[in-house]
Design a protein that fits this description.
Elements (H helix, E strand, L loop, with lengths): L1 E10 L2 E11 L4 E5 L6 H9 L6 E6 L5 E3 L12 H6 L3 H14 L6 H16 L5 H11 L16 H13 L5 E5 L7 H12 L4 E5 L3 H7 L2 E6 L2 E6 L2 H16 L5 H19 L5 H9 L27 E12 L2 E12 L3 E5 L3 H11 L7 E6 L5 E4 L13 H6 L12 H10 L16 H14 L4 E5 L7 H13 L3 E5 L3 H7 L2 E6 L2 E5 L3 H6 L1 H11 L7
Parallel strand pairs: 3-7, 3-8, 5-6, 6-7, 12-16, 12-17, 14-15, 15-16
Antiparallel strand pairs: 1-2, 1-4, 8-9, 10-11, 10-13, 17-18
C-alpha cells in the first residue's frame, strides 16, 4: 500500500495540494484525472520522491518496490536496449553489477568468494537468472525486434525508445507502478498490449492519461485532482463522468423526490456494475461497484466548454474529390496515388503510420502546401474550418483574445459583430470576465487550442478538418470536443490518436500509405480488427515494417 498523509505543496502563492490524505491499495488501478495545471504529474512526482512536499509524508509498505515510467528519453543513450529494461529493477541491477565487479577483481580473495556467493543467492531469489530472457520477451511483446536488443538506446528510433522505457517501468513486476501518459507515441497494437497487461496486473497502478478509452479499459478507480484536494471514486472514467453528470442534473431538479433520485442513481450503479462484468478488469471493478452506495456519487465541479459548430448552409452532395494525389519528402513517399470522393453526411477518420503524412495531406487540401502530382477539388457549397496540428503562426503577434478573435470574423458579418458577440464565443471556450483581455503570447498550449476552436466556430462551417484536436487539451475539453463532432450535422475529417474520439465520431476510415490508400466504410474498431485490412496493410507498408 502507498499512503499520502497531510501532503501540502505550494509554489509561492499558488497552492497545488492542501493537506491531501489518500491511500492506494493493492489490486487497484487508479486513473489520476484533473484539469490542465491541476497537478496530476506533480502528484506522481511527489509519490516517487522526485518532488518533496512542503508538508506531509508519503509512506510505502516496507519491502515494496516502486517503479516509474521515465520521461527523459535521453537518460539511457549509452546503455543497450536490453540492459535499459533490466535497470528498471534497480536492486536486481545493482546486485548484478556488484557481483560482476567482484568476479572481475584480479586479487580475488576467499572473502570475495563468500560475498559473491551471498550475492548470487540473493540475485537468484529475485529471479535474476531469468532476468535477461524475461526482458527480451517483454521487448518482443512490445514490438521491439530481437536485432535491436543489443543496440544502444541512442541508435534506435524515438517510437521504439518509448516502448523500451515502458518495458523498463513494468519489468520485474513492481509493487507500485506510476505511469504518466504511457500511451503517448504508442501505436494501437502496443496500447492494446498494455491494456491487457494492466488489466491482469495484481499490484498498485497509478496512471495519468488523456486517453479515455485507455482509462476505461484499465482503471478500477478514478482519483480526481480538484481544488487542491484529491478524492477517489469507484469505477472507470466513463462511470465517473456519467455518474457526476447524473448527480449534477439531479441536484438542479428540485421537484424530484429524494427516493426517486436514489432509485435512478442505484439503477445507474447496477447498469454499470453489470457492464463491468464484461470488461477486462471484470472481477476487481465489479466488486468495487457492487459495494458502491448512491451517497458516494457527487456532482463534479468541472466546467466543460461549449463546442458547437453551426453550419450556415447545408453542404451539397459533392464535398471533396481527390485524384492521384502524391507527396514525397526527402525522396520518401508520404503517400501516393490518393484517390477518393467525399459525399454529404460522411465523417471520415484519416490514419497513417507516419503522422507527417496526415498533416501534409491536410496542408495540401487547405492550399498551404503543394502536392508533387495529382489534384483535388472542393464542392462549391463547402465552407470549411481547419484545426492544424501546429498553430504557431496564429499566435506570433501579441493581441488580447478579443482582438485576436475579431480578425477571423467572416467578411459578410463584420458590420454586425460587436464585443458581446465575440465574448460569447470566447465564453463557450471558458474564457470569461477579464480573461478576454489576456495576451495571446502568454497562453498555454491548451488555451491556444481553445482559441483556435473559437475561431472555427465563428466560421459557421459545414465541413471541419481536425489534425490531432486533443493535443494539449484536458479531459473535459476532449469530451466536449468529441460530443460536438458527434452532434455536428456537417462533414468531419479527423486524424486523432484518441481511440474513443475516433470510434464514436467516424463512419469511414481512409489510411494513407506510401503505396496508395485503404478505404473502408466502417468504424475504427471494426477497421483495426478486420483481417482483410491487416493483409492490405502488410502489402502497402511491406512486411518488414509491420510491427508485432
Amino acid at each position: 500500500m502507498i499512503s499520502v498523509n497531510n501532503v501540502t505543496l505550494a509554489y509561492g502563492k499558488r497552492v497545488l495540494f492542501d493537506e491531501v490524505n489518500i491511500n492506494f491499495s493493492k489490486g487497484n488501478c487508479y486513473g489520476i484525472i484533473g484539469a490542465n495545471g491541476a497537478g496530476k504529474s506533480t502528484f506522481l512526482k511527489i509519490l516517487s520522491g522526485e518532488i518533496e512536499p512542503n508538508k506531509g509524508t508519503v509512506s510505502i509498505t516496507p519491502g515494496e518496490r516502486l517503479a516509474v515510467l521515465k520521461q527523459n528519453h535521453f537518460e539511457f543513450d549509452e546503455v543497450s536496449v536490453l540492459h535499459t529494461v533490466m535497470m528498471g529493477h534497480k536492486k536486481m541491477w545493482d546486485l548484478m553489477s556488484e557481483k560482476d565487479a567482484i568476479y572481475m577483481k584480479e586479487d580475488f580473495t576467499e572473502a570475495d568468494g563468500i560475498k559473491a556467493g551471498e550475492l548470487e543467492h540473493e540475485f537468484g531469489e529475485m529471479g535474476g537468472y531469468t532476468a535477461e530472457s524475461d526482458a527480451a520477451q517483454m521487448l518482443s511483446e512490445l514490438g521491439v525486434k530481437d536485432d535491436m536488443h543489443q543496440q544502444l538506446m541512442k541508435d534506435i528510433p524515438a517510437n521504439i525508445k518509448v516502448r523500451v522505457l515502458l518495458a523498463q517501468a513494468i519489468f520485474g513486476n513492481p509493487d507500485i507502478l506510476l505511469l504518466d501518459e504511457p500511451t503517448n507515441n504508442l501505436d494501437v497494437e502496443t496500447i492494446g498490449w498494455l491494456e491487457n497487461f494492466l488489466a491482469d496486473y495484481e499490484n498498485i497502478v497509478l496512471v495519468v492519461s488523456h486517453d479515455r478509452h485507455f482509462l476505461d479499459a484499465v482503471c478500477t478507480h478514478v482519483a480526481d485532482v480538484d481544488k487542491q484536494k484529491i478524492k477517489v471514486y469507484t469505477g472507470n472514467y466513463t462511470f465517473w463522468y456519467e455518474s457526476s453528470q447524473l448527480a449534477a442534473r439531479q441536484a438542479t431538479d428540485k421537484n424530484k423526490k429524494m427516493e426517486e433520485k436514489k432509485k435512478d442513481l442505484l439503477e445507474f450503479i447496477a447498469r454499470f456494475s453489470a457492464n463491468a462484468s464484461k470488461s477486462k478488469q471484470a472481477t476487481s471493478r465489479k466488486k468495487a461497484l457492487d459495494k458502491l452506495v448512491f451517497e458516494d456519487i457527487l456532482p463534479s465541479n468541472r466546467k466543460y466548454p461549449g463546442i458547437i459548430f453551426k453550419p450556415e448552409r447545408e453542404p451539397g452532395n459533392q464535398v471533396l474529390n481527390v485524384e492521384k494525389l502524391t507527396k514525397k519528402v526527402d525522396g520518401s513517399a508520404l503517400f501516393s496515388n490518393v484517390t477518393f470522393d467525399i459525399v454529404k453526411g460522411q465523417k471520415i477518420g484519416l490514419i497513417s503510420r507516419n503522422p507527417l503524412a496526415i498533416t501534409m495531406f491536410f496542408e495540401i487540401i487547405n492550399g498551404r502546401e503543394k502536392a508533387d502530382s495529382g489534384k483535388y477539388e472542393w464542392g462549391t457549397t463547402i465552407t470549411s474550418a481547419y484545426l492544424p496540428n501546429d498553430n504557431t503562426e496564429y499566435f506570433e503577434k501579441s493581441d488580447n483574445l478579443m482582438d485576436w478573435l475579431r480578425q477571423f470574423v467572416p467578411p459578410n458579418t463584420k458590420e454586425t459583430v460587436d464585443e458581446d458577440f465575440l465574448r460569447g464565443f470566447l465564453g463557450k471556450m471558458l474564457f470569461s470576465g477579464d480573461e478576454i483581455r489576456k495576451q495571446t503570447n502568454v497562453l498555454s498550449g491548451g488555451e491556444k487550442v481553445r482559441c483556435m476552436v473559437s475561431r472555427m466556430m465563428l466560421q459557421n462551417p459545414n465541413l471541419i478538418m481536425l489534425d490531432e484536436p486533443t493535443n494539449h487539451l484536458d479531459l473535459e475539453s476532449i469530451t466536449a470536443f468529441n460530443d460536438g463532432c458527434i452532434s455536428f450535422p456537417g462533414v468531419v475529417m479527423i486524424a486523432t490518436h484518441d481511440h474513443q474520439f475516433m470510434q464514436t465520431t467516424v463512419d469511414r476510415i481512409i489510411e494513407l500509405t506510401p503505396k496508395g490508400i485503404i478505404d473502408r466504410l466502417m468504424t475504427y474498431d471494426e477497421y483495426i480488427q478486420d483481417e482483410r485490412v491487416k493483409e492490405l496493410k502488410a502489402e502497402m507498408y511491406g512486411d518488414a515494417l509491420v510491427q508485432a
